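Minutes, project check-in
Item: structure for the 273-residue chain
Input as provided by the requester:
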Amino acid sequence: MDRAELAMVLRTARSRIEPAEVGFAAGSRRQVPGLRREEIAQLAGLSVDYIVRLEQGRGSKPSDQVLGALARALRLSDSDRDLIFRLAGSEPPGIGRIPMLVRPSVMRLLDRLAGLPALVLSAKSDVLAWNPPAAALLGDWSALPPAQRNLIWQRFLGAGPDRVVETGEQSGADCVGCLRTAQARYPQDPSLAGLIDELRSGSPRFDELWRAGRSGRLRSRTASVVHPELGTLTLDCDVLSVPEADQTVIVYSAGTGTATASALELLRLPGRA
């Protein structure tokens, strides 16, 4: 592990990101370019102290999961992502692994969808990126550990009355089928295998559905989202494919003039995310 070089690369990458690109206010009190350390920590789901230690070249060896979270938070290209893996003494994600890096063009699309909640999902339904309306609708994904930023994990293992619960036409069997499809496509991906093992051991319902042997995929549908303040919102949920990265963009919307459309407008107000 080359701590000094890794520290320099991380600091430089952080300085290149404009706050507005990732939903933070630019403000007038920023004294250095780019994001603050606490903002990268929030995006990556890591502690500020750990980010400080890494950028000062004195952090412990980061896990592959942490490196992936940093690569996404810093919006690194494939080559830059591979660089930080190698500097940390790890092998970069290789062939047969689920792509976890969101392309800059997809991030720009997410930024343009400022009026609608939108998420970017991996092939195993990891929430890789989201915009502020999605955080206001579904909860702040940055507050969760990276391993729990997964729609299927939340459906079967997530807990707590304050969390938004998505219901509707997409059944649990469809969710399980998506993972089975991903397993057939990425049989050597260790993170996928670990997710399936955790779900099977932790959720009898998931295990029952898994043993049924069905495949599936995400589909555009109507979904009901139970929001803790606004109640049940009936939304059109459209699935946009990014085939080269094997990722999907999920966009929630409602018909003009409906009660749900008015509720979405309320979610855009400051302080809702």
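Outcome recorded: The chain has a mean pLDDT of 84.
No further action items on this chain.
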